[in-house]
Amino acid sequence: MVLLAATPAAAQTREPILVPDISQHQIVLRQGFTGETLLLYGAVLDPRDSDADYDVVVVLKGPTEQVRLREKARFLGIWVNAASSDYRSVPSFYAMASSRPVNEIVDERTAAIYELGLNYLQLSPSGSIDPAEQSRFSQGLVDLRRRSGLYAQYDTGVEISQGVLYRAEIPIPSNVVAGRYVAETFAIIDGRVVTSATAEVQVVKEGFELGVEEAANDWSLFYGLFAVGLSVGMGWAAGRLFALV
Q1: What is the pLDDT, as a whole number, of residue 10?
Q2: Which residue in 52, 59, 154 sits closest to 101, CA to CA?
Q3: pTM of the full predicted structure?
């Protein structure tokens, strides 16, 4: 009897539950792959049966990688490599979609903790460098990835219906790398993340692309020589062709 009496009260203190899903859990990179669109959807289940007005933010990250970013400078009329900055752990892909602009949902501290938005990515620079210069390099790296389609932010990309269901479409460009991608969904109310959940997507290579990658890894010397020989041969053939025209 005590247990039965306590159960309704306990249910009132439970936090909401996120039930996320993805339209497909595997993307195959084949020859001619031109990109894909992932649908991330789900529901926010509130055991308290409250009329809370939730915001939802979805973040999709690709596998991390080490990056060396070089800055170009003009020297004696030509462009040369100048300063550089190394990063230990940079997401190869990052996309965020939210029901409203992030700065209207959470404060800067919360956005930084959960990496909600391109301005709050933790890029893990290595070595000692002036903070102002490091900020400039980081902004440049994010801008390069954004222009190549690998980083994106959709401030109104999440649709919420009936206060429970949500959906967001995330474009996947053709130049993504293979690996494990993690989709994190956050339910937020009054600037506080009340619950979160994750789902995974595997991006894999098949066919010709997989064969080329395996050859480059297993026979790196011969692969490099073949690539150089192929480039020289194609250059020679193109020169001969234009000479005959």
Answers
A1: 42
A2: 154
A3: 0.76
